[in-house]
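Ticket #4471: structure output looks truncated?

Reporter: J.K.
Steps to reproduce: submitted the chain below (301 residues) through the standard prediction queue, then opened the result file.
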Amino acid sequence: MKRLLFLLFLATTLQFANAQSNDVRITLTNGKILTGTLMFYDFGKEAKLQIGNIETTVPAANILKIESINVPDTVDNISGFTKTNIKISKKIGTPEKSVYVTDRADYPATYDLKVGPYTIKMHLVRGGSFAMGYDGRNSLAMDSEPVHIVNVTSFYMAEEPLTYEQYYYLKSIEKSSKNKPKYATINRDDVTEFQDIIQAKLSNKISLPSEAEWEYAAFSENHGDFFNLYFGKEFCRDYFEDYTDEDNLTDPVYKEVTARRVIRAYYFSRKHDRLDKLNRSNKKYYSYDAACRLVIKAKDI
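Returned output as attached by the reporter:
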């Protein structure tokens, strides 16, 4: 999967630092190998390669992997591409940003997850890379710095959080006779236990989204698949920690147990929806109850 992640990570905003490091070896799906200077890569479309005096265009669908000839490690090894090898903008002073899809594998667009008598519709989020975090106005209060490059492998995310009916089923408790809102909310102290219940009753491959998955989905092109029905507070499976400035981590999860759980929301209030989906500061909100949404990696369905 790392190979796929970096295959297309050499995209519009991702270029080799100098002409020498543009010398690459491209392995095609038919086994043929091309060696030359990578002129540019338009992710998901094509690569232009200079071989001697001839420039050739290679469709992305025909490329198995790209290796750098001048950098010791290849695209297969993420550590081979460091901040000195790659030019990528991490200045996210605007609430809007893009994710760069790199995984074009043939996954179904949706997946139906059976939860007892209930069916949860899940939508594919294709893996890729993005600059996670925010360093603009109010970013310190939002605990959204430093901005760092993260790789996320393809996953399916539920189009809405668990409802109370689904929650009662998973918890093996009788449905309450009290009027409840549609979506179940739990306290931060119950998140670990509830994740264990989810995995015991459904699959150990199913979990709450990591914070990286959640933010990646919030800025993906199909974000409307998830946040049209629900846009309030949600737990992630991470514990709350300051962001690291280490780049190119793949599917990071903050696992060290702290007093707080990560809560994210597409927006806390309609007035600030552009900023709220970047706001991870739960100093004020960490004691709130929040909803739970399910994810599963595309490779695991």
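Triage note (M.O.): checked the attachment and the full token line is present. The radius of gyration is 21 Å.
Status: closed, working as intended.
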